[in-house]
Amino acid sequence: MGIFTRIKDALKRTKASLGKKLFEMFSGRALDEEFYEELEMSLITADAGVEATQQILEQLKWRLYEKKVKEVDKARNVLKEVLLEQIVCDFPEYKFPLVILIAGVNGVGKTTTIGKLAKSFLDDGKSVIIAAADTFRAAASEQLEIWAERAGVRVVKHSEGSDPAAVVFDTISSAIAKNTDVVLIDTAGRLHNKKNLMEELKKIKRVIDRTAPHADVRNLLVLDATMGQNSLSQAESFDDIIQIDGIILTKLDSTAKGGIVFALVTELDIPIVYVGIGEKIDDLIPFDSESFVDGIL
Fold it and tell me: Which of 46, 63, 162, 204 is placed for a possible disulfide with 158 were both Cys, Cβ 3.0 to 4.6 Å?
């Protein structure tokens, strides 16, 4: 099954909600103020966010004027162009050796995502090691080991409550010794104590920079698509602590509010890199903006 088909299947709930409304709107009616008001409400209801919705409406109105489009059926294709441009965001190709720091609050599917990501790199012929650097949460490393075993990769862990930066140091040292291509770093997700988390992440970053100075380092944030606008506030908080390079959006198949993609990219200018579309280890796929827009329309 191709990426387009898998994303389309994952977006069934969003399409049933937003897509159905858009289909009805673009069926034999005038491009009047009522049309734009309904489009605005449909996008906001799908969690596209006020800022992204306003930008989409402004661009649509301008494009329709520019192209002299007056028929509603032709306006649909113009809307598709606008939506696509709204979520296109640059994410440079990985270079190896690669170190990925994975951030995110507890409960968003961070541990399962790391296992899926490890499997994805393995499928691409890369060797992988995981750092169990969330030493704060009870049983975090045990859960990570289960997914790592499914993926078939090594995990470096220390005892609960130990220094996360020490785990990262040992993991990178092992990766260098064994010429491992990819290091995945799990981190604590306790936003309620931002100061401690900030100091922890700063220390981890110093260890990465010192131990792997020639590696390609990326900070990826895991967000739960079902959380809607709460995901946006989480992203803002983590971006304040460390500069987020990309977003992994989980549970896209479990929400009717996939419009959060527009809010995240528009308001934060951070690309969606992967989407989680199920519980299986292969259910993490690269985000494709064209497939996403086709899937909701």
Answer: 162
